[in-house]
Amino acid sequence: MEDRTVIQWDKDDLDTLGLLKVDCLALGMLTAVRKTLEMLKRTGRRDLTLATIPAEDAATYEMIGRADTLGVFQIESRAQMSMLPRLRPTCFYDLVIEVAIVRPGPIQGEMVHPYLRRRQGLEPVDYPPALKSIFERTLGVPLFQEQVMQIAIDAAGYSPGDADQLRRSMAAWKRRGGLEPHRERLTQGMLLRGYSAEFAEKLFQQILGFGSYGFPESHAASFALITYASCWLKRHEPAAFTASLINSQPLGFYTPDQILQDARRHGIQVLPVDVRYSDWDCALQADTRGGNEPAIRLGLRLIAGFVEEVASAITVARTASTFFDVEDLCRRGDLDKRHRDLLADAGALRGLVGHRHRARWAIQGVEAQRPLFEDVAPTVEARVTLPPPTVAEDMRTDYATTGTTLGPHPLKLLRAQLRARHCRSSADLARLPHGTMVRYAGLVRLRQRPETASGVTFVTLEDEGGMVNAIVWRDVADRQRRVMLESQLMCIQGKVERKQGVQHLIAQRLENWNELLSGMRTPSRDFR
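Below the sequence we write its predicted structure tokens.
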């Protein structure tokens, strides 16, 4: 707006002044969902909006219950994936609870295990009958800020204004000690209304947990809606959803390579970057194997260092007529040497000249454009026969140029060496009983050390069969910190733990086996 300056105040200033605070969350998943819906409509597969995605789909909840949620919103983290087989959501409100329960507040308030035990019928659901309207949906365990506020009103005699002040204090008590003045009022209020001292004290301790970040129910419901939409799209339109995730990067826990490998494990064909077909973004094409699901054609955006404007020039030139050789591409696409090299290194010229070695040779012969009538004698190019790269060489260059490979998984090539070192595979681990001691090696895909985990580090490893989640206790992590942080290919000696459908590998010793990768760099993401 002309002659108008907008200053964004922080949340504490707004709170001090008593102004309304509204969070506008620029969520990358909303972009991914929008792009998925647009892609489905553009390709004639479906015409949906966020509001018309079919609700309460049994196949979607079955997928969620298996923790097959890589790439979706909110429930893709290690902690959420470990919770899903135990909670097993079967309806939308279960997703609301799932989103809210894996938070520092419920965890530190010791609300998670009581809720799960009650949900599984392992302990009775117990709460005062007068508070049934507050506790019934969460089985007697307060999981949401609104519940705490309503308990304060109904059980301790708070006014709605006082309850809102309690909510504010919950958010600030670690900084200002704001909850202590409420202890006596809450407990005395409940005692005066006939509630036991044990119930009052237990409830206050749970409220303290909300100071470490507990969700409002309304917030959890809004997030759960996006969670469900992303899960439905992953279940019913996996190719479009995967392509849109790549087109919306960076977002989420996982690298594009992990997202694409997951799609391939689910039977989706992924086609390489190719100047004859690729646009800037990943797109859908017919499955060349004759499958019913569309394939994903990788976009030029995956080539490290490539520029969108150059990709657009290639697309425009290709629309006029197909390229018949590398020189035609370079001339009509007006490619400089840098972008010619990038295309050759990424294998994007394979459809015009063949493998990478031939592509690199071919672009060296592309000459700068001369004036139309310059008197230049034609040159005769000698035929050169170049051997193709090995599978390992192609894989190494794939990761260096596009961050992913569509050839065999790196560990498939190393499996014989890993067997010789007495290492099991992820498929082996899935069949082994609880308590089995094993050696397992995989590519490090994720490291996470949450503040609420008492120094525990969670490491996700991957091989040709899938992912293995490892738990590294603080003493092991501190003793082998360098190995844990520097390993791309990590061997873990430890014990298989299997509880309630969830498998972990409890690490006792870590080893760095990067030398087996022969200099190949594989992507990972690390979080706190």
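The chain is about 45% helix and 10% strand.
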